[in-house]
Amino acid sequence: MAIIEAIDRGADHQPSYDDRTLVINRASLNILANLGILDDSLPRCPIRHIDVTRAHGFGHVRLHAAEHALDHFGAVVVARELGNRLLTCLGQTEGITEYCPERLETFHVDDDNQEVSIRLASGTQIRTWLLVAADGTGSSVRQAAGIASTLHDYRQSAMIFNVMAEPASNDTAHERFTPEGPLAFLPQPEGRYGAVWVGSTERIDKAMAWSDDELIAKLEQRAATGFRKFSRPGKRARYPLKLLRTPVPIGRRVVCIGNAANTIHPVSAQGFNLGLRDVAGLIDVLADAHDPGAPVWMARYVQARKSDQADTVRYTDTLARAFSNPSLPFRIGTGLGLAAHALLPGLRRRLVTSAMGFREPVPSLARER
Questions:
Q1: What CA–CA distances, in Å, run from 358 to 82, 211, 273, 361?
Q2: Exposure pattern of 160-182 as b/e (b: 16+ CB <10 Å)?
Q3: What does the alpha-carbon distance between residue 27 and residue 363 come to, in Å, rounded to a whole number?
Q4: 3-class DSSP state for residue 153?
Q5: Are 252 and 299 contacting, i.e. CB atoms less than 8 angstroms apart?
Q6: pLDDT for res 189
């Protein structure tokens, strides 16, 4: 197995190893644990309660893990910590060749020899049965393979930063829907919150230039009334939000996973978890494959993952569009939806099951042991 990575592996050079808070749902925690990645060296804050509120409207859902005979729904991990742990595990795993920093320049599928011939920017040649594209929303591999996808620009961005507040964070994940977009507060170590502020790209561009005092004042206006005394906001980063959908994420000896296949809105924190389930699903399908890139295995992967991918895309896109629609019918409808989930146990159970990542068929690595 070989990994091609364009960016230097050092933590000081990898931009994705930042202060973002990643919500790792229960299914994903199982995947990481079963791969030997989740251990005591990885700091994490368990999520035992989920609090969903609505600004300027009715509807409030509060979920408790104990009500479902669970200790937790998932956990929050800082991206930098998880990235460093992954690098440690990678360095300890035999049979993996890293090309880093390096770039894939071209590739060619040789049907006669049943392989993919890859040429790197340095001139190095690699031959393999299967090329896995995990190179993000703008995947050059997906485009070069001619794999069809659709792209929708939400015209929104997410501003990410850490902040202190009262009460200090504990084991509750908060998500508040506002007319501008969702605002999430996720628990971090030492009582801090990881804030995810979503708004129009124009507004987020302006927000990036606010002073810390301005940011705190705006937070106090937008946050739920239960929060107070915001302080010590950390470094801010912004990420444009787009929806990429690839209904059939395979080509000739090429398969797209994660954001290279489906990039979704961060509402409900499903994107990273969907990508991990792609990995687990691919492992399941290829477990007994002599030729991993053969069409039969690629077709089985599509079949195994299509319902989870389609349902997750539909769920997050519906939330993103419905809760940002200012019209009265949508405001009433979303309020009634939240109220129904608060009152009806059956709806709550279904919401919890989906939020934890247990969409059928559940990959082997994601199952409870």
A1: 22, 42, 11, 8
A2: bbbbbbeeebeebbbbbbbebbb
A3: 9
A4: strand
A5: no
A6: 82
Q: Which two tokens stand for residue 308?
A: 């989870």
Alpha-carbon span 335 to 271, nearest angstrom: 24
Q: Where do runs of H (alpha helix) occur along 37-191?
A: 79-91, 140-144
Distance CA 185, CA 187 (A): 7
What is the rounded CA–CA span in Å between residue 177 and residue 7?
36
| Spatial contact of 259 and 342, defined as CB atoms under 8 Å apart | no
Distance between CA 234 and CA 20 in Å, rounded? 11
User: What pLDDT is attached to residue 53?
Assistant: 85
Question: How many whole angstroms separate alpha carbon 320 and alpha carbon 305?
Answer: 23
50 touches 74 (CB < 8 A) = no
Strand partners for 331: none
Distance CA 326, CA 368 (A): 41
Which value, to the nearest 10 degrees, does the dihedral of the CA atoms of residues 44, 48, 54, 58 take? Answer: 180
**Reduced to 3 DSSP states, what percent helix, strand and coil does the chain have, rounded to the nearest 5?**
35, 30, 35
Angle at 25 between CA 78 and CA 342, to 5 degrees: 120
Polymer length in residues for the chain? 369
Looking only at the bridges linking them, the beta strands covering 125-128 and 115-120 are antiparallel
Task: Look at residues 140, 122, 333, 99 and name the one whose alpha carbon lies nearest to residue 254.
Answer: 140
Which tens digit of pLDDT belongs to each residue from 213-226? 999 999 988 887 77
Helix, strand, or coil (residue 359): coil
For the domain covering 129-151+242-366, report its CATH number: 3.50.50.60
DSSP 168: P
For residue 74, the model assigns a pLDDT of 96
The DSSP 8-state label assigned to residue 270 in this structure reads: -
Count of alpha carbons within 13 angstroms of residue 164, beta-carbon side: 5
Contact in structure between 241 and 156 (CB atoms under 8 Å): yes
Q: Which has the closest alpha carbon to 354: 280, 246, 269?
A: 269
Give CA–CA dist 293/304, Å, rounded.
16
Distance, in Å, from the CA atom of 79 to the CA atom of 6, rounded to the nearest integer, reads: 19
Q: Pick out the chain residues at pLDDT < 50.
A: none
Hey, what are 299's tokens? 């077709």
